[in-house]
Design brief:
Elements: H1 6-30, E1 38-42, E2 45-48, H2 49-62, H3 71-90, H4 97-103, H5 112-125, H6 129-141, E3 144-146, E4 152-154, E5 159-161
Antiparallel strand pairs: 1-2, 1-3, 4-5
Helix pairs in contact: 2-3, 3-5, 3-6, 4-5
Length: about 180
């Protein structure tokens, strides 16, 4: 090789290896299940943690005693919303923004995610078992990732299953003396 020194020839494999490792690390970070601020990702569409918190906050502010909406139930409803609303639209049983806003009239300025939450709840009531089965089938094929903070999505139960943090180890119970 003309014009190259031994040091520059040695640097090429090291540089290539460094670039390869950097690319692998970058891809593994990007390929992870979560994005910053995501409560869930459904087929690439992000449900933002902020939306979950706003829905919970707005609906809990107008709920009756003892009927509080947990954040994991808000996540579940926002995961289901596109599927339920699409099925309702297909059957000409859509729920308008105005209808949803009437239900939550006590919320001064409901967030779009809160309106979507209510639309989904109302639309679900109008669906028959065949429509619900179709939604379950679609959910089974979807790629749904939930932030571990809320739990994991179980497509068979259509539920968010709470997960214990991996740093908490169950204690073995000691026998009674």
């Amino acid at each position: 090789m003309l014009g190259t020194t031994r040091a520059s020839r040695m640097a090429r494999p090291t540089l290539s290896l460094t670039l390869l490792l950097s690319a692998a690390l970058a891809l593994s970070a990007c390929g992870g299940a979560q994005q910053s601020g995501a409560a869930a990702i459904v087929d690439g569409k992000v449900i933002r943690d902020q939306d979950v918190q706003v829905v919970s906050s707005q609906l809990n502010a107008i709920s009756q005693e003892g009927q509080k909406l947990s954040p994991d139930n808000a996540v579940l409803t926002l995961i289901l919303a596109p599927y339920v609303l699409a099925e309702a639209k297909r059957l000409n049983k859509s729920v308008s923004d105005a209808d949803a806003r009437k239900v939550i009239a006590k919320v001064a300025k409901p967030a779009p995610s809160t309106v979507t939450f209510v639309q989904m709840q109302l639309a679900l009531q109008g669906l028959d078992q065949a429509s619900k089965a179709a939604i379950v089938q679609k959910l089974g094929k979807a790629k749904i990732t939930v932030n571990p903070r809320y739990g994991t999505f179980d497509a068979t139960q259509i539920a968010i299953i709470p997960t214990a943090p991996n740093w908490i180890k169950p204690q073995a119970t000691s026998p009674a003396k």
